[in-house]
Amino acid sequence: MVSPLDKFNNHVIGSKSVLYDYIPVVSSSGDFSSISGIQTVINSWNNILLTPTRTYVENPEYGSDLYKYIFEPADETTIEGIKSEIQYRLMLYDNRALLTNINISFMNDRHGFVVDLDLEYQGDKKTLTVVIQQQNLFKLEN
Hints:
By secondary structure, the chain is of the alpha+beta class. The chain has two domains: 1-36, no CATH class; 37-137, Roll (Nuclear Transport Factor 2, Chain: A), CATH 3.10.450. Helix content is 30%, strand content 31%. The protein has four helices and five strands. It has helices at 4-11, 38-50, 76-93, 134-137, and strands spanning 20-27, 30-36, 98-106, 112-121, 124-133. The strands form two sheets. It has a three-stranded antiparallel beta sheet. A two-stranded antiparallel ribbon has the order 1-2. The longest helix has 18 residues, at 76-93.
């Protein structure tokens, strides 16, 4: 007979070989959807990179400082800073997948940039696109 703890570990949060997580969605079947495998890592990485540091009371260091690069010049120094920030934060908070490539492109019409991350997890390869822009992070009053 399977204990409740084993059932929880294997079917709710995953096992050592299979990752599971839940994400909020708007659907007729409910408010949450189950994801597994590489999608779990993508969701985690997206949360890390889009969460500004010092926004979680219980863990103020969680997240990234990518928002600090929004108003920086679109040059090689900024690109290297962004890459370093991404690599540092992902290795610190979620190193379950291999980051194989980082591509950064700056937006022409508004302050911000787009980061494409190529990752590999247990033979699966995906690309995560993260948009960091002024209007998403700073609420400007008129």
